[in-house]
Each structure stands twice: as C-alpha cells, then as structure tokens.
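How a chain folds remains the central question behind the approach discussed here. No coordinates are needed to read the tokens, only the vocabulary itself. For completeness, the protein is quoted in full, as a sequence line and a line of structure tokens:
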Amino acid sequence: MRGNYRINPQAIKVRNDSSLTPSSISSLKSVVKLIKDHQPDVLASIIIHVKGNKIPLSQLIITPERAHELLWENKSLEKTPYFVYGTISNFIKREKVYYLNFEEGKNFSLVVFEKYFPHFTYTENQLLGHKVMAYGFLRKNKYNDKQSTEMIIKSSKYIEHLPIVT
C-alpha cells in the first residue's frame, strides 16, 4: 500500500493450503474480512510472502504496545508493513498534522501529515472510541528524548473499522 491503497499482490501472497482462505490479499479490507470470517486457528495457519520471505500473517497483526516493543527492541521486520489494531482514544488536530492515539498503546500514534489531509476523510466522531486496524510501516520518533512509535497514514484507506465482537 505504499503510495497507493492496494497492497501489491506480487508482494504479499498467501500460501493456500485451504479453500477457506483466499489465495492473495489485495487490501486492508481483505485482512479485516479474514479476521471477521475465520477462527484464530485458521488465521494462524496463513503464511504470506513479503518480498521473498514467508511470514505468518498473525506475526504482522499486532497491538500498538507490541509494535512499539518490536521497533524499539530492534525486533521488527525490516521494510515490512504491519497491521496494528486497537481502539482510538484520542484524535489531536494540529495545523499541519493529525495524531490518532490508541487506548492500548500510549507510546504509539497514527500520524497524518498535511499533504495527506485531502485523502484522509475520517472525522473524529467516526474514529473516537472505535476499534480499527491500520496498515503501514513502523517508524521511530525520539522527540524530546521520549521514545515513541509512529505509523504514517496516507489516506482513509489505510484505516478500517473492525467488526464489533460480542
């Protein structure tokens, strides 16, 4: 999804050992659909190919806390996008940047820069208090010597609402 909405199908392919799962993942929406439609044991069996490496999909779907931990302990997969999920607790609007924070991770923010504002159509009401999954690359930020983790969001297509589980 780097530069556009769709995941490059050549970059991410699913090992199709079952007719229950798709043969490829083409968008964040398709990952959310997998989560909604399948039990955790099926999800754990899905292996994807990212730039020639075989990775369990479950290793890339993580909480904000886990994203922060992996990145700052230098254990994150290099040049590999992650799917981070949680509940949006804070939406901070500045003149040139928006910060979206999760309840589950105080050291993690989704960041929308001014040049992406035209492509980011979510409002505070559509996100605050909602469970979402975001797609992107993790990056370190050491502003004021505080270690934090960010994921740049380039459009609304990089965030999907997660189904409510009852």
The longest helix spans residues 28-37. Confidence is low (pLDDT under 50) at residues 1-18.
